[in-house]
Amino acid sequence: MIYLEPNVRFTSHTLYNNAAQGGKHCPDISPEKSDNEFFKTKLTRDNLIYFTSSFKMRPNTRIVIGHVNPDADSIVSAIAYAHLQQKLVKKFENETGIKSNRTIIAASTAKPDSQTQAILDRFGVNAPMVIEDVDSVNKNNARHPIIMVDHNELSQSVKGTKVTDVSEIVDHHRLDFEGVNPISVHTEPVGATATVVADLYEKNDITIPTKIAGILLGAILSDTFSLTSNTTHKDITMATKLAKIANIDKERFGEMILNAAAVDYYEKPMDEVINSELKTYRMGPKTIGVSQVIVTSPQDFLETKKDETLQYLATQEKTQELKPKQKYDHMILMVTDVKGKVSYLLFTDKSSKLIDQAFQTKSRNNQLYLPGAQSRKTHVIPNLTKVFQSSNVA
Predict the structure, then answer these.
(1) How far is CA 189 from CA 3, 31, 282, 291, in A?
(2) Residue 208 is part of a domain; what is its CATH number?
(3) Which of 2, 223, 292, 304 has the fewest CB atoms within 10 Å, counting from its CB?
């Protein structure tokens, strides 16, 4: 095989067929030759251009971007994967002598939150450009390919994203993407997308720079609550490697990251507290909104902000008569202790039946205590999904 562009492989047979479709033929390469014989064929710069000339290339700027309401894993993975792709483009150019003219940019759907900014500041890394709507950067009917990181659902993507825009996915969540074209998908059941990205550096034999290693470590520690929740052996092994490259104590770094995650809910309006970490999920015929707020004292939040929270959640849910056009059928807030490995779910009367079905319990007073729960992805979403996969849908 030969690399024509990063992450896209073609055999000699594929190359020949593409060239044939363009009405050209190269005597040195034929579909009858095996791949071993193909390796021995002298592939000159002209021959490569000869065979790639029939490909219809998409716009040469690719945007690596995470989900709306981005967290550390989303923003850091975009930065790191864009860097990796840039290195792969340069490697391709050096090995083939062909100028690809491809540009890879990292972007985010919003500015970093306080925790993400603390991670970036620790290693002197700038936040990526903010793109709130991809149509703002798509000019003259040319749509830039999107590389989705840390998500794969269009409902969580940057505004304006079309399914045909997506050229690649790098993620660690459940798969819920139905495309119309073949795309590259890198997904693993690990604690953070940053773990997947770091692994792709290793698989492509690209050295991880100190600063990139540092922010990747920060993203892993953030998404796994400092390797205490939703953590796999691969996360732990990768975190140790990255800490060594970044020359940092991962335990102390993890403590700093957790402290930076706590939300000052007295200083922010409730809509900002909830919407800053809100994720949207399509489950069967329903649209579910699940947000998460990390606090130093869940009890204080429940005592001082519960009523305000429930009022806001109710304003966002659909009702048949009053608000049929609202986006969400159910809205849920997960209140998580920054250190205590415990969470509470807050929800309206309308969502009580759904919660009771999902967690096989009888909730009271619009809240549910979840000991040991820290991860929305691991401890909440699978339970809700099972309800909608059964015939008894809430």
Answers:
(1) 28, 39, 20, 21
(2) 3.90.1640.10
(3) 304
Residues linked to residue 201 through DSSP beta bridges, in sequence order: none
The amino acid present at 87, given as its one-letter code, is K
Question: By CB neighbour count within 10 A (0-12 exposed, 13-18 middle, 19+ buried), where does 75 fall?
Answer: buried
DSSP string, 320-350: TTT-TT-SBSEEEEEEEETTTSEEEEEE-HH
In terms of domains, do 254 and 290 share one? Answer: no
Q: Which tokens go with 21?
A: 């479709």
Which 8-state DSSP code applies to residue 313? H
| Residue 392: predicted pLDDT | 62
Decide: pTM greater than 0.85. Answer: no
Q: Which of 152, 140, 161 is nearest to 63 (CA)?
A: 161
pLDDT classification of 177: cutoffs 50, 70, 90: confident
Based on the fold, state whether residues 79 and 222 are members of the same structural domain.
Answer: yes
* Alpha-carbon gap, residue 142 to 35, rounded angstroms: 36
Q: What 8-state DSSP symbol labels residue 156? A: G
Cβ neighbours for 159, distance < 8 A, ≥ 6 positions apart: 68, 109, 132, 133, 134, 135
pLDDT of res. 107: 96
Note the pLDDT tens digit of each residue in 48-78: 333 333 223 245 889 999 999 999 999 999 9
Instruction: Please indicate, yes or no, if residue 35 is contained in any of the structural domains.
Output: yes
pLDDT in tens, 203-251: 999 999 999 999 999 999 999 999 998 899 999 999 999 999 999 999 9
